[in-house]
Amino acid sequence: MSERHQGTHALDAFMRQHLSGGQHDGDVHALVHRGFTVHNLRLRNPDATNAFAACHLPEPPANNEWSCDSGSIYWLGPDEWLLVCPEGVSPPEPVSAEPSSEPMTVNDLTGGWVMMTLSGPGTRPLLERGCPMDLDPAAMGEGQCAQTLLAKSPVLLAAHADPNKITLLVRRSFAEYVALWLAHTGETFRISFAFEHGETDAP
Fold first, then answer.
1. How far apart are CA 90 and CA 110, in angstroms?
2. Measuring CA to CA, how many Å separate 52 from each of 37, 49, 100?
3. Pick the CATH number of 37-108 from 3.50.50.60, 3.40.630.30, 3.40.50.720, 3.30.70.1520
């Protein structure tokens, strides 16, 4: 299952009702990404640096951090990361092959996650209404990520250099609920939604 195929995005029905039609003049804008791949990486030996190098990946990010090269790598735990590659960028061949032996196991989760990037001055205040974490930039700044709850749903949040920009990843089964919560709670912030690549109509 892949988000790259038209008509399969978890938020298609939601976006038919909430597409902004190009109007992004509120305090929060939610860009819903399409076409990306997702792989779960789990170490099978204690040497993360060599394991990543063997899979043609850059240095693994440290605890509660994420890094972005041709793809984004999010720390999930001491021996686990999430690799997200945007549309048009293939994961390294050893990852695509999903090796089941040393140095790490790889599971293709493409289609199982929804990703959106929230931006604007209301981004953190909006998320704080449903998240128990301290989202102040001093507590969660550039390059940091965290698994937490948003409106009681498990999500992964990642902070950018711009303090008003946060990427949100949520499992497909929770995606529409989280999107509806954002739309309802975000009314105060005049939240707007758009698909990546400028689509103005959901399939």
1. 12
2. 18, 5, 14
3. 3.30.70.1520
CA dist., res. 124 & res. 112, Å (int): 25
CATH number of 12-35+111-197: 3.30.1360.120
Q: Which two tokens stand for residue 47?
A: 């040497």
Question: Residues 6 or more apart from 153 whose CB is under 8 A from it?
Answer: 170, 174, 177, 178, 181
**DSSP assignment, residue 143?**
T
Q: Each residue of 87-125: pLDDT tens digit? A: 888 888 778 776 555 678 888 999 999 999 999 999 999
How far CA 72 is from CA of 75, 85, 96, 180, in Å, comes to 10, 6, 15, 26
